[in-house]
Amino acid sequence: xxxxxxxxxxxxxxxxxxxxxILQVAKENGLDIPTLCNHPWLTTxxxxxxxxxxxxxxxxxxxxxxxxxxxGQIVVAHNDRLETLRQxxxxxxxAERNHICxxxxxxxxxxxxxxxxxxxxxxxxxxxxFPVLTPDTTNPYxxxxxxxxxxxxxxxxxxxxxxxxxxxxxxxxxxxxxxxADLGVPLGESSCIKCGTCVDVCPxxxxxxxxxxxxxxARGLERKPSICPxxxxxxxxxxxxxxGLVARIEGWTEAPVNGPLLSYRSRYEILNEPHPRxxxxxVRKDGELVEVDWAxxxxxxxxxxxxxxxxxxGHVVGLCSTRLPYETLASYHRLLAEQCGCVDVDTFxxxxxxxxxxxxDLYGTHKECDFEAxxxxxxxxLVGFDPCTTHPVLGAxxxxxxxxxxxxxxxxxxRTTKTAELSILSLKPRRGSELAVLYGLLGQLxxxxxxxxxVDRLTAEKWRSHPPGRVSYEAGVEEQAVVRAAxxxxxxxxxxxxxxxxxxxxxxxxxxxxxxxxxxxLGHVGASKEVMVRGFTTGANSAAAEQIGFRGADMEGAAVxxxxxxxxxxxxxxxxxxxxxxxxxxxxxxxxxxPLVQYADVVLxxxxxxxxxxxWINVMGVGQTFExxxxxxxxxxxxxxxxxxxxxxxxxVKEAAHE
Amino acid sequence: MAERKVLLERYDVPNIWELDVYRRHGGYATLDxxxxxxPTDWVEEVKASGLCGRGGAGFPTGVKWSFLxxxxxxxxxxxxxxxxxxxxxxxxxxxxxxxxxxxxxxxxNTCYAIDAHEAYVYIRGEYLEPxxxxxxxxxxxxxxxxxxxxxxxxxxxxxxxxxxxxxxxICGEETALLSSQEGDKGQPRQKPPFPAVAGLYxxxxxxxNVQTISTIPHIVRHGAAWFAGINLAPESKSPxxxxxxxxxxxxxxxxxxxxxxxxxxxxLYGLCGGIRGGHDLKxxxxxxxxxxxxxxxxxxxxxxxxxxxxxxGSQPGSGAVIVMDETTDIPTVVWRISRFYAHExxxxxxxxxxxNPWSVKLLRRFVDGTARAEDLRxxxxxxxxxxxxxxxxxxxxxxxxxxxxxxxFRHEFEARISHASAIAAGD
Lengths: 659, 427
Fold this sequence. Notes:
The complex is a heterodimer.
Chain A: E1 4-9, E2 12-17, H1 22-28, E3 52-55, E4 62-63, E5 74-76, H2 80-96, H3 111-118, E6 142-144, H4 154-161, E7 168-171, E8 178-181, H5 197-201, E9 207-209, E10 221-227, E11 236-242, E12 245-250, H6 264-267, E13 282-285, E14 288-291, H7 294-310, E15 315-320, H8 326-339, E16 344-347, H9 351-363, H10 371-376, E17 379-383, H11 387-390, H12 392-405, E18 409-412, E19 425-427, H13 434-449, H14 457-464, H15 468-475, H16 479-491, E20 495-499, H17 501-504, H18 509-525, E21 533-535, H19 542-548, E22 558-566, H20 574-582, E23 585-590, E24 602-605, E25 614-617, E26 623-626, H21 639-658
Parallel strand pairs in A: 1-5, 15-16, 15-22, 17-18, 17-20, 18-19, 20-21, 22-23, 23-24
Antiparallel strand pairs in A: 1-2, 3-4, 3-5, 6-9, 7-8, 10-11, 11-12, 13-14, 13-24, 25-26
Chain B: H1 19-24, H2 30-34, H3 39-49, H4 61-66, E1 77-82, H5 91-98, H6 100-114, E2 118-123, H7 128-143, E3 159-164, H8 174-181, E4 205-209, H9 210-222, H10 224-228, E5 241-248, E6 254-259, H11 264-271, E7 281-285, E8 294-295, H12 296-299, H13 306-311, E9 320-325, H14 330-344, H15 350-368, H16 373-389, H17 393-414, H18 419-424
């Protein structure tokens, strides 16, 4: 229980708890102390000098953002002297660079502007300095305009503290100081991960979205939380709406998994729609897709499904996107499994989950580690996983671990990965030789920690037959790298193993089994009994699909393929192309007029991410429910309505046949 | 009166920077008695001596040591501030160049007292020869078993790491120095936490100046009472010998080690041989360019004790005495000092970053005689904003230069307001 304290600010009695700053106490008690460099997500900087207050008994002024609140303190936050100092500070800031509001992209959403109005700054008594500073537009998503910068350091802190990369820093000094990327390279060529957190925290127009300058002003904006449908971390975000349209995406402080951190994909890429929307249903007539009304399209769909169901000319295959909410996935599964008697229902990229399922069957079900364990880890082994590409928020967490705590990361992947740059050691085995590397690691681990008595005879034979020399020969990795990777893993107190899509897509459950074994071996000598392994998949709602019972689909000899893709940019592999070509008929429910359309016999419009509400379950089983943020264009019906309509038609056909 | 040479006693001995020469002249004698007493006894001894930091702030050294956080589970570090960059100060350079072993002896003494096994010397990047001498001396000491896994055969490991700065005045400020030492940009940090609680690598750290640490062996050797007795001003609580760098318009500028309480009159007219060329004294900055200047009539009533200088309205600072005779143009001096601070401001806080360039431009108008009537008022307000509101002492010091000059020589500024502007303003 925190110790309660009482202090007086501007004559008002304020309550707080020990450990709070004067500013926090003032805010909690509804008192306003002006700030610029302070931000609730970040550590204190104390540089702008706006929040200076007088504290009785202290010789000098103190910054409220940094000064700890003490019981019985008497604080003066507003008087003429402080007002003069704040005005002077603002005057200095305004003369520093180009702060001419009418020509700024962020006028109306600027804290410097707000402070200026509050403190009645009408002009500065000194000439503008107007240094020549070129805006940096090399980042694809946002612009850095040094002319609007007040050097508050929020971006610099957020880049290190939230994004973990520390790309931004201060260059030069004094009034020549500028915020630079790395050692002064253009942002677009820097180590920036383009997460955009710096844009969120910038108080002025020094950093702004390329997509939404001028358009996303403070007035009339609405904010609705939503979820990033891209990966299975369950990253929540704030969708900023203007007149019902998405203006931009912001970090959301209350996001349970990711906090204010977003990836470039959830913040920017999600707003890009590469293909036009499907606005009306279409049916293929004489080889051409023709726009029809909903009734006709739904009838055609039901007819196709019913025919297949009753006839002997093949089976129905259902494939749907894991970006959809739980409710839609469940309805889809019910329609196909119960009403069409279809056993081949899966999601796109279902192989990732299937491998894991097979591993469960072979090696017994394991409870894998949670986020907490990943945060606590003092060593991370990545297997077939490139979080910096597929799960950028997790990538940023790992970067933070490396840069803040010096945690070693070892990466094993046959591909060249972005995460390899963070790794202390990166093993690149030949494709298909991953197992040899894992046996090699296992063997080294057993040898280095003397764990031979813990493994059964069969495994022992396997690892004995994989000394580093043989691993090196089979997999094309250096002998020493195998030894060192095992040593790093063996030396750690709380190591975790994270595997990803590259591993699960191999379809080899033995790989996962070996990882579990490695974790268990160390668990025997360490404290933890839980298996410190966690697999990640692409697709936000993979865990929900698994719960509902999507169990894999056999595309071979399909009569009808029913694809519910929504706005999923489906990876059209050669295999999938062939399967779709071979299928008797293809029903496609899609938001976009993408490459899948060419294979479809019936096209039904669908929703995109912002038009959907429902529940998403992330990789750790955390459920999050959100409402739709935007309305679908006229004529587009919700997916569940479509599924219900098809279901009703199927029932009608069934009844008719029965009579 | 003469100088009171303690730290500089062996200064003129040929090759005193070599270990055996230094040892022949009583060097490292303190190690015999050091380990006989407990570390806390030594902290108390230094407290009792009344030694105040020689770097600028003048905080009592022993008291600072006693603030060290205990039981943090982290090591304690000693960082020696050898980033001597205060304009007018040049005595640390000499101490490093000629008496590096005196500093090392002081580091050993201090580290034992504060239980540190790792000491860092952050040395000004431009000090190449002092750096080389210091590194050479450390190697000699290591080879002689005075540093390393054991110190003089005692179970007390100690390592000294020398780190060269890259040319920033701000890195003389202790928290900025620590940031720079850690590899970050040299910018001051928020206090609290103070370095004694969370300093270098967030571990308890003592930052002391070269002269302060070089004084420690003498206290260890002769005792606190002896040190406290080196004091001519009975009311002064900052005893001991202090080295002053005298520069400017005196006959014999240089570094002088004097007893606390030596009158400035004695220093300037006695030791330094008076003002050059028969000119009259105009003003003196008693503690480096960071401190307010004092006019002739005030400085000649002042002595070198910390209390006397503070009473006169200035600060003892780093001990750089800058002497200006009657030919000196005060607005030009202040303009030149302000340029230095504008150049050296780190950029962290608004008042210092922007206030300094403002001041420079305003002062330039006074130098040129083109100042407007309101410029004086703005100059005062900017200085006030900087003095009250800067993050670290750099901005405050920059303001003091202007404020000190305006306090005593306002008329020289008023005389530079252009006639036309004065008429326009109705003055």
